[in-house]
Amino acid sequence: PGAGDRSAKAERMFQLMDGFMTNDPMSLQKDILDHVEYTVARSRFNFDDFEAYQGLSHSVRDRLIERWHDTHQYLKRKDPKRLYFLSLEFLMGRSLSNSVINLGVRDQYADALNQLGFEFEVLAEQEGDAALGNGGLARLSACQMDSLATMDFPAWGYGLRYQYGLFRQVILDGFQHEQPDYWLNFGNPWEIERVHVSYPVKFYGAVEEKVLEGKKCHVWVPGETVEAVAYDNPIPGYGTRNTINLRLWAAKPSDQQDMEAFNTGDYINAVINRQRAETISSLLYPDDRSYQGKELRLKQQYFFVSASLQDIIRRFKDSHSNFDDFPEKVALQLNDTHPSLAIPEVMRVLIDEEYLDWEKAWGIVSKIFSLTIHAVNPEGLEKVPVDLLGSLLPRHLQIIYQINFLFMEELKKHYGLDYNRLSRMSIVEEGAVKNIRMANLSLVCCHTVDGVSRLHLATLKTRVFKDFHEFWPQKFQYKTNGVTQRRWIVVSNPPLSGLISRWLGTDAWIRDMDLLLGLRDHAEDASLQEEWMMVRKVNKIRLSEFIEAMIGMKVSPDAMFDVQIKRIHEYKRQLLNILGIIHRYDCIKNMKESDKEKVVPRVCIIGGKAAPGYEIAKKIIKLCHAVGEKINNDSDIGDLLKLVFIPDYNVSVAELVIPGSDLSQHISTAGHEASGTGSMKFLMNGCLLLATADGSTVEIIEEIGNENMFIFGANVQEVTNLRQNGLGVKKSLQFARVVRMVREGYFGFKDYFKSLCDTVEDSSDFYLLGNDFESYLEAQAEADKAFVDQKKWTKMSILSTAGSGRFSSDRTIRDYAQNTWGIEPCKCPS
Ligand code: F58
Question: Which listed site, 15, 287, 729, 743, has its alpha carbon 20 to 30 Å from 332?
């Protein structure tokens, strides 16, 4: 067919766009059963919950694919500037509930299932988490994908399809053990394998210089080639037809590889060698110091960057004949420095493969990249040994050296021969081991560098990237993180979601969180308060049932549920929480029987994973169990205090725990949490925060007001001063007492806990637990006092939700779109 025929066909398709699938209960039932019979290959007369879940998700998947195709067709026709979001980690969690809600077919599916004798919630529980990430950074990527889709931005996510996601945490005798996460074993209906979308990725080898048409050229002759195969994950927007793509790459052996060995007859070894290629995308590195300098980690980074860029450049070239328009059509976002090899890779492709000269290539590169930094301390910044980079990616090393050479020349022009400054800012770190500083590379090449909260930007400017900020102040911005209310209210807390819509008289807040401010007018309304308390109670009952099912402990939903769930880290100070619990236990233990009536009963809940090589974090988990063992079995204490550790914390556990929490703790030493996003999820769900003035909490205080939160501890300036003046100036007797209890073996494991106690002893108390302990206890006492007055507490809770609008990832993404990426919405007609 000629071009005219093709576009007529396309026109016809657009006319038909809404007419493909129907969502009435009969069609849905038939659809689910068809999938059970033909996709899952079970008899439609005999299938269990898991098979029903599979049939159901394939039915939902069909609807996703339809919109996803439409979105791509439409974007192809419009050719707007696109955002490409490069991230090594995405913590997507479960997809079913989120998909049906965003597609607007939740109730229809629930009805259809009812008629088949199944319950939607029960089937949804069959799904495992997609845990292709570690913590905050990775979950943020997932929230941002949801906002990009919902607000109709023409965006793609790119990442790695790890065979094994984040390890599963198993607790044995109170100790953490790690087990592999076989998340793909039972198939994954949420991805679409694209065997024909694949690219060769090269490694090792050498660079040869040649003269082509009188011009000096570099030819990289690789030593190894691995194939990257695309797996597409449709991301539906809420209240829109737009469904964007998260493309994850899996490594497969390349047909070009090892042909020599086959030809020479070494068949067995050739086959075995081919298998090795797959290790590149086999596992997610847990948040460990130890991955620094590891070859496999670097291979993962380049593998995903190279495949993504080949894909992006191919798409661009489909409708453009030269690269002049590239910066008008492409924005590349680096999610932390992990994908920063994209910078030399674009330079290499433009120069060596597209034959642009250096200046022209640099002109393009300096306009397309932006970076978000998620770390606070310089030790968190990535470095790659020069030898390693040179052997794996010889051409990239040359390009990085050239970028650095030109950068140093620029600095010399500006500062003269200030060698100290030059060596601090250099991309190459000199020393016994020469390193490439990935952050410096990114700072030199990106047009914009964003921090993740206002306080974080201040830290970057004054400490971590002081020199760079002095040189390029205009590059530095911040976009305070946000989370998506679709997952963190609508999916995870349906009763609250319904209540909010009823009181606001609209569900428009699901796309416009500022509307929640309307709840402020009703904060003291007795009937709202009553309904609010009821919803909270229902969620607490659900959480207590979960706790009983998980660890066999009964807890009373009338107690205050006090929760700290996040990765275990010294700076996040789970140890401060546990020491506070010991103090509470000690007080109750020494109380007169008559005074016990005044105690507010508490259920303290802690959950989180420790990196496998992080000894101190693992000891904190053990201490939590040892203390829990003592308290939970002490008949003097009864229901006045319980300590629960929730094993294998992940996104779907968070969805259950957050709505059932009364109080949540975000108690990092000020200056250490870049932003924090857990706090925002709790806030939206009407849970009160007990927090330090760190990261985004500073901005939460501005929205909610001091009086509706429990704030304690040294602020950033005080932390700096305390450290400058030597630590341990202020140390309460209470603190000394609880540490002594641990040290002297009150909870057993005396020798094991010694090194943990040492970390908070006087001058080595880097995270200032001793200093903040007293004000922590005061804040806890305030929380007890407020809880007794349930009217007051409920008002604070309503005001927390009402003020949480600013912390929607919709706001963050809108800001990035306008001020960093320069992209506009492109809405697929419906
Ligand atoms: C987190 N970083 C920050 N890094 O700690 C947190 O304050 C912030 O809210 C969040 O990013 C989102 O901006 C974080 O999660 C990682 O997980 C790294 C991943 C790569 C390995 C080292 C840890």
Answer: 287
